[in-house]
């Protein structure tokens, strides 16, 4: 049943007297006249618990667990050819299709920031002659080295320092000067590289 205005007013007045016993009747009537009612109730602030940060492995622990080691039975060139095909498609998409009229500087700039896992590279110059001619698929890129699997199914660890690498895709040949390339793959994506004509080893 719906209550009339007088019953509703009496109910609200009684409710306010019970809720705020210290308040005088005049003050309550004033509040009702202005139609602004604030109950004396304070919510307790919830204490925020400290979030536990997930602790990752240290560099020593990663080495001990051999997380980045490639097992000998998996060191086969043919096993990583599909990875190379995926990488080529990734670069084509990154460089808007690698059309013949694409600007070499644009392609070079994209390659410098691209993920190189799966790329086929060749050591073209080196201060250590034994590195020159090594060709293979990049399996791992670290800050200072490339781990490359060759067609002879040999895993080579080639330092970036003092080495120049060539990379070819769809007729575009790019040169990577390892001494200026000593960054992790994640760091390179935000790095601004300056394109230079010649750089000494």
Describe it:
With 201 residues, the chain is of the alpha+beta class. The protein folds into 2 domains: 1-51, no CATH class; 74-188, SH3 type barrels (Roll). 30% of the residues lie in helices and 19% in strands. The chain is built from 6 helices and 6 strands. It has helices spanning 5-19, 25-34, 59-65, 81-94, 104-113, 185-188; strands spanning 120-126, 135-141, 145-150, 155-159, 163-169, 172-177. Strands 4-3-2-1-5-6 form a 6-stranded antiparallel β-sheet. The longest helix has 15 residues, at 5-19. 15% of the residues are buried. The mean pLDDT is 81.
Concise overview:
It comes from Nothocercus julius. The protein has 201 residues and is of the alpha+beta class. It has two domains: 1-51, no CATH class; 74-188, Ribonuclease P/MRP, subunit p29 (SH3 type barrels), CATH 2.30.30.210.
- Helix/strand/pairing class, anyone? alpha+beta
Q: Order of SSEs, N→C? A: HHHHHEEEEEEH
CATH topology of the largest domain, what is it called?
SH3 type barrels
Helical segment count:
6
Uncertain segments of ≥5 residues (pLDDT<50)? none
CATH architecture of the largest domain: Roll
Major sheet, described briefly? 6 strands, antiparallel
Radius of gyration: 35 Å
Helix proportion of residues, in percent? Answer: 25-40%
Note the overall shape. Answer: elongated
Write down how many β-strands occur, each being a DSSP E stretch of 2 or more residues.
Answer: 6
Give the N-terminus to C-terminus distance in angstroms: 93 Å
Strand order, largest beta sheet: 4-3-2-1-5-6
Give the C-level CATH assignment of the largest domain. Mainly Beta
| Global mean pLDDT | 81
- Approximate strand percentage: 15-25%
CATH superfamily assignment of the largest domain? Ribonuclease P/MRP, subunit p29
Tally of domains:
2
Protein name: Ribonuclease P protein subunit p29
Organism: Nothocercus julius
Family: Belongs to the eukaryotic/archaeal RNase P protein component 1 family.
GO molecular function, one term: ribonuclease P RNA binding
């Amino acid at each position: 049943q719906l209550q009339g205005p007088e019953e509703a007013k009496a109910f609200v007045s009684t409710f306010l007297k019970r809720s705020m016993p210290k308040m005088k009747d005049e003050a309550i009537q004033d509040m009702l006249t202005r139609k602004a009612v604030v109950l004396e109730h304070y919510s307790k602030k919830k204490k925020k618990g400290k979030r536990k940060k997930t602790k990752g492995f240290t560099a020593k622990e990663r080495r001990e667990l051999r997380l980045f080691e490639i097992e000998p039975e998996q060191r086969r060139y043919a096993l990583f050819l599909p990875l190379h095909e995926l990488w080529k498609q990734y670069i084509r998409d990154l460089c808007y299709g690698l059309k013949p009229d694409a600007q070499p500087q644009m392609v070079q700039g994209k390659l410098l920031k691209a993920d190189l896992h799966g790329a086929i590279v060749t050591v073209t110059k080196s201060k250590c002659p034994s590195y020159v001619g090594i060709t293979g698929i990049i399996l791992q890129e670290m800050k200072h080295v490339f781990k490359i699997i060759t067609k002879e199914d040999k895993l080579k660890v080639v330092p970036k320092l003092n080495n120049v690498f060539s990379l070819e895709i769809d007729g575009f040949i790019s040169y990577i000067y390892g001494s200026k390339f000593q960054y992790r793959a994640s760091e390179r994506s935000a790095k601004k590289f300056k394109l230079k004509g010649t750089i000494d080893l």
